[in-house]
Design a protein that fits this description.
The chain has 380 residues and is an alpha/beta fold. 45% of the residues lie in helices and 14% in strands. The protein is built from 16 helices and 13 strands. Helix 2 links the parallel strand 2 and strand 3. It is globular and about 60 Å long. The N and C termini lie close together (8 Å).
Length: 380
Amino acid sequence: MKIITVVGARPQFIKAAAVSRAVAAQNAAKGPAVTERIVHTGQHWDRNLSEVFFEQMGIPRPDHELNVREAHHGTMTGRMLAGLEDILLEERPDVVLIYGDTNSTLAGALAAAKLSIPVAHVEAGLRSGNFSMPEEINRVVADRVSSWLFCPTKRSVENLAAEGIRHHGHGTPDPARPRVVRCGDVMADCLYHYQERAKKEASVFAPGSPLADLAGRPFCLATVHRAGNADDPEKLSAIVGAFSDIAKNLPVLWPVHPRTAKNLEAAGIRTTAPGLRMMEPVGYLDMLALLSASACSLVITDSGGLQKEAYLSGKPCVTLREETEWVELLDAGANVLAGADRGRIVDEAGIMMQRRITPDPALYGDGLAAGRIVAELAGY
């Protein structure tokens, strides 16, 4: 079997690392042979959001790079679609494998579907209910054209069933008769696999590093990158104000996404709060080291993936959105929504810091999701 894997953004590199590792294990075990060729769309091109993940996680180097960088959503998706169509016509894969909910996901799904190539969607069935988010549109369209829908949770399977997308166990999978598989979460696979290595190799608190003085001291880890926050000066200003307020009592470590940094500068948003430590984006191992540190008391983010990683690391989370696709974290009391309201963020942060989170292995799987995905596809 020949698979084309389409990736382009930081969360997809993490997920693809787990599946690529499972492909290698499948071939080493001399099961049905699987050939994987990787296409990097270029959606995240900054070294700290792209290159470092391939290096640290041992992901095979991309076979094709489209270099489609910052642009409006439609322009970006259109350029990716055109580039992917040429590659698929050249490669003639059996399956196109897509991840998550980015523009790269949508372009991969559409390019394959228009060429009648089966699509396999990893992280299928997630829904936030907010169609003003580009990610919601991307994931719904991708699910509709997919032949395999690999769901991370029970809720994601239920979401698909509510839309009339149900499992068909016999015959050749296609969008009319798809295979819906609850496999677990591949990001959990990666966290379990790399967590101990991160503790040994990460340098984020090493002597001489910018954060060396915080080693062992309680801190809050924060990220902001979604367009709804990063591209809105009023919301971004409120979030920075909340971070500054929290930092008066608890240092806030904020790896700043390149787009967010650009928008902060363009809007003239400044902060003099000494406890707010703004820094360059960090690699996967350093992020895991920050999350798993016993001194990490709280996570504040608008990232979908980091919400899960916080939970799996036993950290309470405040989400800078009015909805989340990871609703089971709200039900578990491990996550709370605060939007971009300065007062709500500060209040919820104070409440959540008192929570003790004990991850439930049943929620996101046993760390073997990628192997199930590869076995399912190899049996096709």
